[in-house]
Amino acid sequence: ESDPEFARSILLHFTALGETQRAKDFVTRRMEEDPNRASSWAAAGDLLLAEGDLDGAVESYRRAIMLDPTVTTPASLDERIGRSNRNEDPMQSAARAAEEIGNWAESENLYRFLVSKDQTSHSARLGLARCLFQQERWNEAGVQLAMVPYGVRGWRGHLLQAHLDIREERWATAKGALLLALQERPGQKAAELLLKHVELRLEVQPPAND
Prior knowledge:
With about 210 residues, the protein is an all-alpha fold. Helices cover about 70% and strands about 0% of the residues.
């Protein structure tokens, strides 16, 4: 019952026979009986995908990955699910999937585990910093981000740095971080809007005393 592939084979059997209602009933029953099993969510994702509900399928696959990082998902949905690299640590995929649906506590735990396993894992530390920021734990987020070199932060890391700088009204450093974010990802709307805000604040900022 805990094997996602077995549950999915049953679903495929019903679908192949054209018994759509039995397939739906099967998924509904599994969700009611075993809502905390990856097999239930994976089967739900398969059914929703077959029905053309991509958003619902992506959400279900993400929850399946959180429960079992090794569960298989359609390669065509990798980017939307948050599984951009099939060769990455399954735990990293699970952490990203939890982060994508806003499960900050769960993603924090997973990222912390990855950092404890490999102190040099910049991607895990960046993920941890993002989750801490989302939980309004600004100082902790800043500590984690400070341990990641600028050259490997990526646009999301630079954007996070800008948010932290803006909170402390460090307008000049925030502008620098935003320019780096836009250099790595031109046209990023959030960075462009924040940059306009920061530049306005710099214009009205009183000159520093000699």
